[in-house]
Fold this sequence. Notes:
single chain, Aminopeptidase, eight-stranded mixed β-sheet, 8 strands, 31% strand, binds coenzyme A
Amino acid sequence: MLIRDETANDIPAISRVVTEALKLLPQATGTEADIVETLRTQGALALSLVAEEEGLVIGYLAASAARIGEQHGWGLIGPLAVLPSRHRQGIGSALMSEALRRLRTDSRGAALVGDPTYYARFGFRAFPGLKVAGCPPEVVQALPFDSTEPRGELIHHPAFGLGQQA
Length: 166
Ligand SMILES: CC(C)(COP(=O)(O)OP(=O)(O)OC[C@H]1O[C@@H](n2cnc3c(N)ncnc32)[C@H](O)[C@@H]1OP(=O)(O)O)[C@@H](O)C(=O)NCCC(=O)NCCS
């Protein structure tokens, strides 16, 4: 398996992987592939990583700039998606490791909204006061790369349609 940056040829396969994987989540809206496309169109994909095997895209991770409260410089990870037939083979972990390695070079930390039982293994955790309107606090998580204490609302890029702007 190879983790690499997306190319223009990958775009249809990325949409398929994101749609198929996110379908499994009860909270999915069906718009996740469109969010990626909007981020791409707006030049807001800080990271757009694919996992490739034998020429096929089997996993995908996006990252975009975000702020927490007044703190700029966070890397928002999401969506992270692995083709359902390839779950539990380390593909999501490989994408996450590479994303964190790259974000460390220019971000104060990574943040995301997701299942804490999965993301804790990478060092993500909830913090007092770290929130996204309408989300249970335990699913809003951060991984600071320095001593920054993330406090306040995690503001996504407007492509996520969550109200405030990064
Ligand atoms: C979540 C997801 C990206 C994980 O990818 P993956 O390639 O299956 O993950 P890995 O193989 O790296 O998993 C590593 C570990 O996480 C566990 N795991 C996988 N999905 C999990 C989940 N939803 N909750 C808890 N643990 C999970 C695996 O059992 C494995 O644990 P083990 O090593 O102790 O067996 C993938 O399951 C997926 O695409 N799910 C649907 C979309 C989604 O939930 N995206 C994330 C939220 S935006």
